[in-house]
Amino acid sequence: MSQKCQMKLLGAAGSPYVTRVEIALKLKCIDYEYIEEDLCNKSELLLTSNPVFRRVPVLFHANEHPITESLAIIEYLDEIKPNVHPLLPSNPLDRVRCRVLAYTYDTQKS
Q1: Whole-number Å distance between alpha carbons of 34 and 30
Q2: CA 7 – CA 12 distance, rounded (Å)
Q3: Ranges of the chain whose pLDDT falls below 50
Q4: pTM for the full predicted model
Q5: Cβ proximity of 89 and 95 under 8 Å
Q6: CB-based contacts of 24: which residues, under 8 Å, 6+ apart?
Q7: Alpha-carbon distance 80 to 96, whole Å?
Q8: What is the pLDDT of residues 66-79, one digit of tens each?
Q9: Predicted local distance difference test score (pLDDT) of residue 63
Q10: Which domains are assigned to the chain?
Q11: What is the Cα Rg of the chain in Å?
Q12: What's the pLDDT at 110?
C-alpha cells in the first residue's frame, strides 16, 4: 500500500520560482506531489490558496495553511528539515545577506 504524499506543490512549467522550490525539495529528500497550474486559466485551488498575488508556487503541507512565495517556502523547508542539506546559513547575519541577495536578484528588471 503506497503512502500518500504529505506535500503538494502547485506550479507551472518554466517558472524559475517553481524550479527553485523543486530543487530545494529534492535536496531535502522530501517526497511531494506536483500539481500543474495553467496560468492562462487559473484554477480555483490557486485563487483560494494565494488570493492576493494569484501566482505559483504554492506549497501545501498536511493540513497547514498554504505557503506562498518561493523564498518563504525554502525557509520553511529548511526549518522543518534543518539537518538534511541546509539551504541557508545558520548564522543570522549570513542568512539575512542571502535573503537580500535573493530579493535583489528577484526584483531586477531585465
Answers
A1: 12
A2: 16
A3: 1
A4: 0.89
A5: yes
A6: 73, 74, 77, 78, 87
A7: 19
A8: 999 999 999 999 99
A9: 83
A10: 7-107 (3.40.30.10)
A11: 14
A12: 60
